[in-house]
Target: Formate dehydrogenase subunit alpha
Amino acid sequence: QGDSKDVDETVKSICPFCGVGCQVSLKIKNGKVRAVEGINGPANEGRLCVKGRFGFDYIHHPHRLTTPLIRREGAPKGLNVDPANPMTHFREATWDEALDMVANSFKSLSAASDGRAIAGFGSAKCSNEEAYLFQKLIRQGFGHNNVDHCTRLCHASSVAALMENVGSGAVTATFNQIEHADVAIVIGSNPVENHPVAATYFKQFAKRGGKLIVMDPRGVGLRRHATHMLQFKPGADVAMLNAIMNVIVEEGLYDQTYIEKFTENWEAEKAHLAKFTPEAMAPICGIPADQLRAAARTFAGGKAGMIFWGMGVSQHIHGTDNSRCLISLALMTGNIGKPGAGLHPLRGQNNVQGASDAGLIPMFLPDYQPVTDDAVRGTFSRLWNSGDFSGEKGLTVTEILDAVHAGSIKGMYILGENPAMSDPDVTHARHALSKLDCLVVQDIFLTETANYADVILPAAAFYEKNGTVTNTNRQVQMGRAAVAPPGEAREDWLIITQLARRLGLDWDYTHPGQIYTEMAKGMKSLANITWERLENEGAVTYPSLSPTDPGQPIVFAEGFPRAGGRAKFTPASIISPNELPDADFPFVMTTGRQLEHWHTGSMTRRSHVLDTVEPEANCSIHPATLHRLGVLPGGSVRLVSRRGAITIMARADRAVAENMVFVPFAYVEAAANVLTNPAVDPYGKIPEFKFAAVRIERAQEQ
Ligand code: SF4
Model:
């Protein structure tokens, strides 16, 4: 990649990939980003991973969308558009023509349905200001709350459990607090690949003698640094965690003083845990009783402990129960509200925390204020100088696509999301997209979802715009435009504003700073954090207690934002995964990301270095299983579930149990989500991406 010395200018911004939120210095030459270096941000202290350092050239890729496109009359919808030559299915349009067409379609669909026929998917890749504007557009423009984004596929169940039991959906401590911990649990997370810079802090913690307990059905990379590696059976989280808590109760290792001062429902939790003995749970979770006891003693024996978790915890039909267990474990050991202690669901996308905070969810307005609360809606109606909107919770991501099939949603505005790749049972999702009367896709590339669009609006990439993002640590950070968008592509906030005006809304934003200031008026969490501060300081952690406070890395030292100020124990019982292996589908498939590729691959598969390192769709299978199937490592297998089949290259990987297969979901040519199960957790409405029953066959061509 480029020379970082021979540059015209440098611009500070934020890495656009994961929720760690590393600060970067962009080296610009002749109007293009030539190199990226890490700088001293609060989350990364100069560090970057391979994606942040080398995954930037997608923004200059020839496939970038540069002009609005309108589908040609009669052009078939489906995965049939060559991104290098979209004119076979689309024609170029002016911005006025495209925006007028969108506004007119939405207005007529809205008029016929009292606004209910329109839904929007916003993006955790856009700025806070853009997320705020998008949810405002759906609510103010159409009067309903049918707006959601990929948090539904990510940590919705974690947030449901945190809101219920702690009173706040964000982390209680920054991940960097691990430097003050002496024990830590990392469960259902593969930070070495998915949050690589955070993982460097975890490794350093282990290196200086911290006790690291890694729990995962896969032997994830962090196991090399673990004092305890619990490779439990997939879907058995509650059995394992309840057994560990049973030991803590039985051996009197809990923190009675903390429990009495800060919690409620302890006696019910204690009584519930009595039957989850290590001996009873060992056959269910696959971890011997003595190892469960050892892990329990290690965690409870620490002076300060942190718990980190990822999608392995949340993406189950019992994801909320999994998180409830982790919250209970932290509460009973007094591990919230002090240095080196806390609950930390590691956020995926760079701005999934901020987009959720900004109200890009169907049941909450900004700052998780319920749409069902008349007073809350009144506050926002006044802020927006508009009438009331529905107090009914809107539909979630998967519910919206079901409603398209049912015929009640007819128009969608999809900004920066790719449900044609990212949703469970993606064939069902693609079919829904093809049925819409009006699908508007706003993105930087002609994504798989854009293949189904009626109108495509070309957007600016992250390094082409100004705006704030909030990372997994609650750090609000300033992203800065370093280069101009290609052709006629525009910043998302500007496109949303121009569409809103055509829908009759009286919006006059001319700069994202105005949007931030309005948003902050409706969000107590942003008190003392002004746009000007962020421009000057680059990052402020919320909550910030004064105009000069850099923010609080640890919260809830004095109690919780719940009635009575106490956190709650919510007992969790064992619920089986929705679809268990059987004779026809004997393997468990789990899905996830890889170090080099980000989510549905639209950016990283167009990044030269990253795609060169990892160019081909692949899955990971234990070598003994491959041997039994007669497949050599590097050969092809056919994976079949009740929903479909894909053919994919198989890698031998001893970290995957013999009855499992791991499939990354970045590859359209072998899309993992053709196979996944759309069953959802009843609280977070998150699909069970981490458990589907599949069959593995030797592919024909071998
Ligand atoms: Fe970017 Fe995440 Fe890597 Fe940091 S750790 S450079 S934010 S992808």
